[in-house]
Amino acid sequence: MGKKIFVTSPALPDLNEYQKFLKKIWDSGQLTNNGPFHSEFENRIQKYLGAKQCSLFCNGTLALIIGIKALRLTGEIITTPFSFVATTHSIYWNDIQPVFCDIDSENFNIDPTKIEALITNKTSAILPVHVYGYPCDTSSIQEIADVYGLKVIYDAAHAFGVKINDEPIANLGDMSILSFHATKVFNSVEGGAIVHSDPNLKKRIDYLKNFGFANETTIVGTGINAKLNELLSAFGILQLDKFQNEVDKRKTVAEAYRSFLENLKGIKFFYDCEGVKHNYSYFPIRVEDLNGKNLRDELYKYLRENDIYTRRYFFPLISQIPAYRNLPSARPENLPVAEKVSRQILALPIYGNLELIEVERICTLIESFTKKRI
Ligand SMILES: *Cc1c(COP(=O)(O)O)cnc(C)c1O
């Protein structure tokens, strides 16, 4: 038996550097409300992601909720069931009906060929997710949105720093939402952002995240409190300096997994896509059924017994949780690909400091499982 290995382990800034920043915060006495660290972090995220506009948030979920509200969406939003629950919850929190669309069998993102059939006179937007940081078919999605006059919000919670042909994904659609949660490839403990290119929209978003305050006495609209504080902004600034190093280390881990797992029967995984700068935020494998029998949960348990804690991202499907499973679009027969992938997917541990010897141990366990079972 080895040491316990979890699916992720957060990258951390240098403690001494962080203490210097904390000292500045103690000296200034400004803990939150758009202080100097917040302003600097917002500017730096905007530049790093190559976006024209950026607003920081205390988490990605509130960024999603406010993004939908700022675009004044109504009626129905077409989205994917193969994501973290926050994607659909944010639609529901705006009193909008989520409409689930099946996913593509290759990249597990929303299948653009299935969107059109779901559009009604109530549809106001499409909310796709770049699952595991692998980009959606954004040009097909935009084409549909343009024809039908729909907005597009990308849940880019997994896609920090991802680029397609040198173009940052932050500039796609009407806006993209990011999460800086501790489990994500870039983290500020908790945090999030909305990036887009419309200066007026930025104003509206910033009012909404601060109770609707336009100035000391003018309150426009019914805002909420979703601000990122100075302590986490300072933390995030230090993290940004180390981000590329984290990605490089994860790339080595991903490549090690690929070489170990390459010839294992019944195990599939993603390769890099041409023209895409990846962030290696997750390393999902697909465990294929054997004679109609699902083996994913057996492998999950077997690895746990050996102190390897993988995660079934994403199982159950969002369309199968009690809050949504009675929606007409949630019927399993409407979502065959998502249903199947959700039963076969397993996210293996990946983080910058994961040692290659541990990657080898995990792969040896998977190999002995497949030899026994397949
Ligand atoms: C993590 C995540 C969110 C929510 O982000 P938080 O910062 O944890 O609120 C939203 N969507 C997806 C796809 C996520 O993985």
Would you write up a description of this structure?
With 374 residues, the protein is α/β, with parallel strands linked by helices. The protein folds into two domains: 15-238, 3-Layer(aba) Sandwich (Aspartate Aminotransferase, domain 2), CATH 3.40.640.10; 243-373, Aspartate Aminotransferase, domain 1 (Alpha-Beta Complex). The protein has ten helices and 15 strands. The chain has helices at 15-28, 36-48, 60-70, 86-92, 138-148, 199-208, 230-261, 296-305, 336-344, 356-373; strands spanning 5-6, 53-57, 76-79, 97-100, 123-127, 151-155, 163-164, 167-168, 175-179, 192-196, 267-269, 276-277, 283-287, 308-309, 345-348. The strands form four sheets. A seven-stranded mixed beta sheet has the order 2-10-9-6-5-3-4, sandwiched between helices. It has a three-stranded antiparallel beta sheet with strand order 8-7-12, with no helix packed on it. Strand 5, helix 5 (138-148) and strand 6 form a beta-alpha-beta unit. Helix 1 runs antiparallel to helix 7 (230-261) and helix 3 (60-70) packs parallel to helix 4 (86-92). It is globular. 47% of the residues are buried. The mean pLDDT is 96. It binds pyridoxal-5'-phosphate.
